[in-house]
Amino acid sequence: MGCLQSKTSHVQSPEEESVQAEEKPDLGNGGPTENDLQVPAFKEYGLPELRKATNGFSPDCIVSESGEKAPNVVYRGKLESNRLVAVKRFSKQSWPDAQQFVAEAAGLGKVRHRRLVNLIGCCAEGDERLLVAEYMPNDTLSKHLFHWDKQPLPWEMRLRVAYYIAQALDHCHAENRKIYHDLNAYRVLFDEDVDPRLSSFGLMKNSRDGKSYSTNLAYTPPEFLRTGRIIPESVIYSYGTVLLDLLSGKHIPPSHALDLIRGKNILMFMDSSLEGQYSTEDATKLVDLASRCLQLEARDRPNTTFLLAAVTPLQKQNEVSSHVLMGLQKTTAVLPTVLSPLGKACARMDLTAVHDILLKTGYKDEEGAENELSFQEWTQQVQEMLNTKKFGDIAFRDKDFKTAIDWYSKLVALMSVPSATVFARRGLSYLMIGQPELALRDAMQAQVCLSEWPTAFYLQALALSKLGMETDAQDMLSDGATFEAKRQNNWRG
């Protein structure tokens, strides 16, 4: 079976390729709407593309916190465009009807919001069912709350999580997506700006029959335990359990939490790692909201409009960026916008294209280097250097990379002035034979020779990607693009 290309033709017009971002969203209510997001249009992907993006669904690419044990595993993937994505792979036969799966996914793909991890595609091919969403590089709420390394999640950030997730749920409610499956701390992820977002995966059932709850039964809505069904009010109950997580920094069964609340023992379940660094008044209001959300009878719980009205006044540091509150650096999960052909080839790890470009470029980036060698040609040592370089270049051209490495290594030992191009060529040769550590070393040596040479940065990015160090690779791509732009401006001047 193909990937059902025709079934989402109604999702967007052909010219609707993506929605461009204009400015960073404001932290309060005045930020851009979903129409201002830099989110690709929803599309259907072919299975070979997603298999390649996830390195054959490699266990090394799994980002589900329960690993391969999860009923539906989520992988980190890298598309040919260099965009990082999250790919959710459903268990076999979860959705026997491919058309139904694509229709559900396409409908969800229309829901866009800055507080959601937006869905950007799907695939239904053979018995594979896959969803593709934006990639969030800064872990889950569960990681920051329960498994933190350096510092506990700050109080103001906890309040921001409550606010942003309420915004996401309220938007979904307005879009008639009133059911969210299994809302918990694993479903809240942090983007490149370290802003919390609600995973769009929870808006879609885990199977055609809707059996979606996978958490401990002690935390599932009472009506689900009674009937096996969830209703919009069930989402409010689950939001209440997330509030308990934010308040306590640990999993507390709602029944136990309600006993503490009734006994006015609020401080008993406040997170001790906060060391009292929170407003007691605001904590009391959040506890009261959690209590309302956790009512046994669904009709007694508030709606999303009430949630927003309750948590909005608690936001006291709207002007402070999330990454500052968290003490983290901003990261990027997308390709820099301006890259040379070499930069793009390195970004997509196309070694053949990189080889072709380095061949065409030759040594022209090293001003006067070849002329200097030719001028000194009368000495025996320089003649030996020229011959060694020639044999290395021939081997490099003919893709005999092991031989090229041998000749270039001899040349490096002979030359009194190191050559950035020789290091670049030897570095690519190391990549071609599967030695990215040595390739990274040579790319760094090329940067030492020519400190603002874009090629050196691009090759470092390529080697870092091969080593799985994506954040550092993106930084190198950005630096290379910056120096590329600087050179272009100098030439225009």
UniProtKB/TrEMBL annotation:
SUPFAM superfamilies per the UniProt record, alphabetical: Protein kinase-like (PK-like), TPR-like
UniProt entry keywords in alphabetical sequence: ATP-binding, Cell membrane, Kinase, Lipoprotein, Membrane, Myristate, Nucleotide-binding, Serine/threonine-protein kinase, Transferase
Biased composition (Polar residues): 1-12
Main location: membrane
GO cellular component assignments: plasma membrane
Membrane topology designation: Lipid-anchor
Stretch list, region Disordered: 1-39
Ranges for domain Protein kinase: 60-326
Annotated protein name in UniProt: non-specific serine/threonine protein kinase
Originating species: Cinnamomum micranthum f. kanehirae
